[in-house]
Amino acid sequence: MADQGLQGRTDLSTSTSDASVGELVGRVATDLSTLMRQELELAKAEVKTEAATAGKAAGMLGAGGVAALYALGFLSLAIVYALSLAMDAWIAALIVGLVWAIAAAVLVVVGKNKISQVDPKPERTIKTVKEDVEWAKNRGK
Q: What is the mean pLDDT of the chain?
């Protein structure tokens, strides 16, 4: 068996040494094309697997958010009941509602300020692409 593998290498080197430069360049181009297609298929498979995992994780996060919202509602109700021992129930509910309204307003203002600071333009990418273009232009000279 080892002789067959060695024979295959000898045949390959013989056929390579008999081939013209054009044929060799053609083989390299074909091999490179095949390699790129295989790499692309591998990347697609990896992205598909990662997307499925991310989808499941997003679903769990969403369900966790819904559960947290229910918990928040019931905890707020418990606070209303506890406050209603010392005051009328409607006043207790009003107090809890106002606390949540203030918390929501603060979160909206802070979130709005953070969003206004976001620059949607990918500055670093634009800079590196411009550098690549300059490099490619100067390389030909």
A: 84
